[in-house]
Amino acid sequence: MSLNTRVIAALGAVVVIGVGTVVGSIAYASDQTEPSDHRVTLTVGTSSMEEDPFCFNDGKPLTDQQQEECQEKAGKALDEGKLPKSDVVASDQIGIGVTPDVADRGWWANSNGGQGQGGRFVLASAAKGSTYSGSVSASKALNASGKTLITVVESDPKQPDAIYGVWYFQLNTQDA
Question: What strands, in cross-sheet order, belong to the sheet with 40-44?
Fold first, then answer.
């Protein structure tokens, strides 16, 4: 049984188109920036946002000076309304997700309000290996000012002073 010329031409066209698609996809992908392996996702109700670190030192611990500068920069960004923000109502559920690279090293997260000790509510404490904090009622984590700051820190629980990355989010309390 022999193939006729039309079948051979059709198969050749499919191969040429397939190769062209693969080559074009590789060229397109090589122009794209690589996704960050240090990202945090804040989930509020049914919405979420994903962010790169606010302060990061290419995977090396932040120096004491870098940590101080990070806090100053964060305070200024908060005052100017430049932190990533989300509206929240007290009945929303909130949670924090991290990439596997952050989870492998370890991380913690808290808010500057709510029903926690010292005016802080712990969302995740020395979590290592876990990529999600779990969902909690926003009413537990919100502060009375209507603007709640969520802080997420990448830090090895065995070396809590070694901070590798810091993320900040602002929650703006809305009436239900």
Answer: 47-51, 40-44, 93-98, 136-137
